[in-house]
Amino acid sequence: MAHTQIEAAREGTITDAMYRVAERENRDPEFVRDQVAEGQAVIPANTNHDALDPMIIGREFATKVNANIGNSETTSDLEAELEKLHTAVHYGADTVMDLGTGSDLDAIRETHVDHSPVPIGTVPLYEAVKRAGSPAEITTELLLEIVEKQARQGVDYMTIHAGILAEHLPLTDGRKTGIVSRGGSIVASWMEANGEQNPFFQVYDEICEIFAEHDVTFSLGDSLRPGCLADACDDAQYAELDTLGELTRRAWDHDVQVMVEGPGHVPMHRVAENVERQQEVCDGAPFYVLGPLVTDVAPGYDHITSAIGAAMAAQAGAAMLCYVTPKEHLGLPDEEDVRDGLAAYRIAAHAGDVANERPGARDWDDALSEARYAFDWREQFRLALDPDRAREYHDQTLPEDNYKEARFCSMCGAEFCSMRIDQDARDEGEMESLTNEEEATDLESSPAAEVNRPPVGTHESGDLPSAIDDSDERSVEQFGDD
């Protein structure tokens, strides 16, 4: 029996997870199987993650969004992390990465896996540093022990910083911001202290064997990603990318699924170049990008600067976007930051899908536009990416129920509302009326993937700790592997 999704796909088997993914994406199960078999898409689904509702990441499917959460040495609160997990699922994260570096890492990780309907990702290197006491004291034996433990706990994908090599380090000497990847800086420090090659690179085949046993997906870390526009697309970044391409093919040889992480800070005119180069070097393996941030001047607003680059990356073929919150570069995000970051990135992902003309992706936009023109405020709220925020902003100035029937909002008022003026002119003049119920967009029959239809939070989160009651969320069936 196949241990991994890619192994089963290569054998011609459509697993239960593939059938579920096909349902969520409105695609043919055989197409899903083919994409997984070719390594063009991944279904992160550890065999030990019983609460998982399978999803797929690949350029031929709806663009996905990851939310990073995690505690730190200065904020180590189990309940706060579980609430962040709930918030992330509630506002539409397709996957969640636990980047915790503080206390209770095992308890937090196990609770996340026990309750999360979305894939959970981790960075084993962080735990290795805590266990060893310093980067220089990490051993390959410790890395393998931690990787295997987290695989047994049910982690669906792990960032493995195997692509940064000793010969790459001199290439960073002329940078403005050096090595900004937390994992990359740790591995570089280890190599400098020990005078040896990257420890992850040394035991990469052993990691592949562990991943194959539990069906853990590689998220190959971009340790040399640029941390500012000046460092984008330099020799260091692209040298590591070449190594990541080699590592991708080695993982495939072990029947292990792979996605590749990408930059970072990249000016707008070079975003597509980054995506296209990764797709070529890594033989089409899914590209998972952080941002990219298209300017360096907006601390406090980097969810916006990065969402611009994220939308462009999605249009160019990136498969998953790692959100950035307003706190990026400034501090550890809280619940509201998670909400704002996810909103920005769900917008970017959806915009990319619309630009790429994914089947039915624009139906959501059309349905909301029709509600807006009809002054159907309640329907506008229902269809909004964040219904609570849309209702809250409307009701700040016009809270009474009678304004839910009004043909204006507080921005223009009744006299200067352009849509009201247009409607009245059409009713009184020769212009044709735009109201036609028979032509209204029917989202129920839309071919759009689940993530491109409301509500954004499509998972039942009642079983998550500190869950928020949300009657609009859909229930989730559990699917296992063959």
TrEMBL record:
The keyword Cytoplasm does not apply. The keyword S-adenosyl-L-methionine applies. Zn(2+) binds at residues 265, 329. It catalyses: 5-amino-1-(5-phospho-beta-D-ribosyl)imidazole + S-adenosyl-L-methionine = 4-amino-2-methyl-5-(phosphooxymethyl)pyrimidine + CO + 5'-deoxyadenosine + formate + L-methionine + 3 H(+). Residues 427-482 are annotated as: Disordered. Binds 1 [4Fe-4S] cluster per subunit. The cluster is coordinated with 3 cysteines and an exchangeable S-adenosyl-L-methionine. Residues 429-442 have a biased composition (Acidic residues). GO terms for molecular function: 4 iron, 4 sulfur cluster binding; phosphomethylpyrimidine synthase activity; zinc ion binding. GO terms for biological process: thiamine biosynthetic process; thiamine diphosphate biosynthetic process. [4Fe-4S] cluster binds at residues 409, 412, 417. It holds the Pfam family ThiC_Rad_SAM. Its EC number is 4.1.99.17. Its cofactor is [4Fe-4S] cluster. Keywords: 4Fe-4S, Iron, Iron-sulfur, Lyase, Metal-binding, S-adenosyl-L-methionine, Thiamine biosynthesis, Zinc. Belongs to the ThiC family. Catalyzes the synthesis of the hydroxymethylpyrimidine phosphate (HMP-P) moiety of thiamine from aminoimidazole ribotide (AIR) in a radical S-adenosyl-L-methionine (SAM)-dependent reaction. This is Phosphomethylpyrimidine synthase. It comes from Natronolimnohabitans innermongolicus JCM 12255.
